[in-house]
Amino acid sequence: MTGAQIHLSEEISKNPERVVVNTRFGRVTGGRASTGAAAFLGAALSFEHSRIVSNLDLECAEIPYALPPRRFEDPVPLPIDFKYEDKETNPQTPEEYRVQFEALCRALDLDPEAPDILETLQDPVKLPWSSITHVIETDVLGTNGTFRGCLADDWLPASPDPVKWQRSGGLARGLRAHGVRSIVVGDLSEEWYLYSIAHPIPTKDDIVTNLRRYFPKDVAERFVEGWRKIPDDAGTEEVEEVFGEILSCGQVHMPVRVLAEDLYNAGFPVLRYAIEWTPEQNRTGGKWSCHTAKFIDLIKDAGRIGYVTHGTDRCIWALRQPVLEPEQEIVAKQWLDRIDVELKQIENESKPSRDVKTILTLRTTTEIGWNQDEKWEALAALRRLVITE
Q: 233 φ, ψ to 5°?
């Protein structure tokens, strides 16, 4: 065979056409492979059975399996009350992670098709853990070097859908059942900076490429579509800043608000916070030309004011006295005491004490007070654009 092999998931992600099929088990949305075949969550229909365009429906009894549900086992018929979820092929499934899995195996000089490959990867004698961390740390895997959770029954169950389960109050009920009395959730004012230096982003085109490490292709593209525009020839600094803004939004700012809203709507005691000040000597700042540099090397650069970015609040929450000046220690203790007071109140009342858009804030002046979430509406609109449900 000549030329590089392209995995099915790559073909589908590059083709914007979507195929909608109505089955007796529910509605399913799939994609097109280069051969014309329609593929659905690891199952496939031949071209002859799916000669349709993206805005037409096909009546179908059941989408046949393309792969068995377990390696080297026979397919299992769907139960009569089974319902497909009405959503596209999800790159968080094992099938979509196949490309990354194969890249990792080859970087370790292993055959990804070997019948005992999983046992080999889990065997610390055959494969020391340092071998795996080495290929990740040295960026041999490129954009395949970022590892995320997987929707699979033996990892993170896909049914019920985790997002819908959380929204329905299932998470709140589960937390109560396990004795969790409250949740504290929040973010920092300049989360974007640490995310801007997570990967090398020299050009505008590298934004979507590296967002794909974390999000499905269509989600990454919609994030960029909904974000502020920069010129095609924008410099590295501007490109990195936009990448950091988008990634921190998808990783922190948006999830924080979604979680808080779902818990609030379920009546669960949730306390939102925002941090706009951290000890200056513990902040990050300046350029980070090497993306593999140690984070500690940056935070020791006490000569810069730096950014109130991801992780710089750790010394407050842990009350790390050796790295705090006396006046900073006072602020940290005041913050922790206030958090404790607010937690006791919502735990005693067994419900939130404030509106979901109201945030306990450690302000730039080091004062502590309640602020309104000025980002709420903009992030809600962006969520509707980015996440199609």
A: -100, 25
